[in-house]
Amino acid sequence: EVQLVESGGGLVQPGGSLRLSCAASGFTFRTYRMYWVRQAPGKGLEWVSTINAEGIGYYTDSVKGRFTISRDNAKKMVYLQMNSLKIEDTALYYCAINPNSPLGQGTQVTVSS
After folding, report:
1. Are 103 and 4 within 8 A, CB to CB?
2. What is the pLDDT of residues 83-93, one digit of tens each?
3. CA gap 29, 76 in Å, rounded
């Protein structure tokens, strides 16, 4: 059974940083492209970042230069380092193997002064 468990969210002031983690199990992690997506209150899912099996990251324009995705295949973990956070980054963040259908519970990120 595929399982994805996100953690690391919290309340942070604008300009602050958080590091999200995702623990994966139940599939051949090292061969999969992994995604971070988010859902802000009252809005649909938004793609944030992708990391391919080779470790190359891709980002939506609004987070480029602020967020960094990484993975540890030995630990079956995906990370999202978020710096210079903005109020508009407030959302429930999910990691996923299908960006249209995240499986986990997500981790809440709230950016507020």
Report:
1. yes
2. 999 999 999 99
3. 6
